[in-house]
């Protein structure tokens, strides 16, 4: 009951929401709570976000295979783009949700540079827009939420350079709606500088 009242209070006081939120989760956390991804997507939809990205950090994407049915359920309530191994699956409609399993930002940047080189672009013509057109993940998250600790992966290293960061000691398994709303409240209290 107290959590419900606190949620209502937090919701009532939210007036400046991020457009896109990125959640960074470890592979171990995903294995412990695979259904949490659908519930969290539902919270994002309820508050009116435009999109959400979930990065599942793992060096062994095969360990996440058992979680794929739960991840695919996101497609029942949103437009899902699932990046797993070398495959991309799409399903559903509505709010844009990307789930990237074991993807590396450094690998993405290297692939981006290879694509530009293959197209024969003059190095003098390469600018930020050129790079952004060749990225795999086009979202620019306003807020990155990291559960279970205070370290980040290299995922979205280009795209998240101006993102606000929110670290939670709570592991993904115990991540509640009230934690999500607290992150949104913290976001709206910040003065975003975009590198200036």
UniProtKB/TrEMBL annotation:
It comes from the Archaea. Keywords: Transferase. This is Di-trans,poly-cis-decaprenylcistransferase. GO terms for molecular function: ditrans,polycis-polyprenyl diphosphate synthase [(2E,6E)-farnesyl diphosphate specific] activity. GO terms for biological process: polyprenol biosynthetic process. It comes from Methanofollis formosanus. It holds the Pfam family Prenyltransf. InterPro entries: UPP_synth-like (IPR001441), UPP_synth-like_sf (IPR036424). PANTHER family: DEHYDRODOLICHYL DIPHOSPHATE SYNTHASE FAMILY MEMBER, UNDECAPRENYL DIPHOSPHATE SYNTHASE.
């Amino acid at each position: 009951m107290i959590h419900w009242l606190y949620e209502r209070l937090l919701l009532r006081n939210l007036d400046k929401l991020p457009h896109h939120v990125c959640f960074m989760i470890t592979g171990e956390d995903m294995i412990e709570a695979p259904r949490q991804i659908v519930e969290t997507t539902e919270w994002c939809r309820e508050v009116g976000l435009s999109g959400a990205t979930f990065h599942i950090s793992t060096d062994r994407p095969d360990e996440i295979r058992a979680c794929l049915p739960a991840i695919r359920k996101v497609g029942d309530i949103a437009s899902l783009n699932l990046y797993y191994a070398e495959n991309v699956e799409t399903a559903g409609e509505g709010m844009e949700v990307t789930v990237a399993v074991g993807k590396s930002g450094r690998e993405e940047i290297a692939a981006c540079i290879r694509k530009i080189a293959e197209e024969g672009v003059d190095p003098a013509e390469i600018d930020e827009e050129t790079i952004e057109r060749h990225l795999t993940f086009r979202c620019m998250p306003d807020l990155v939420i990291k559960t279970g600790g205070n370290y980040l992966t290299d995922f979205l290293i280009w795209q998240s350079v101006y993102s606000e960061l929110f670290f939670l000691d709570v592991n993904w398994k115990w991540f509640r709606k009230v934690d999500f709303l607290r992150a949104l409240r913290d976001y709206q209290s910040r003065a975003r500088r975009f590198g200036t």
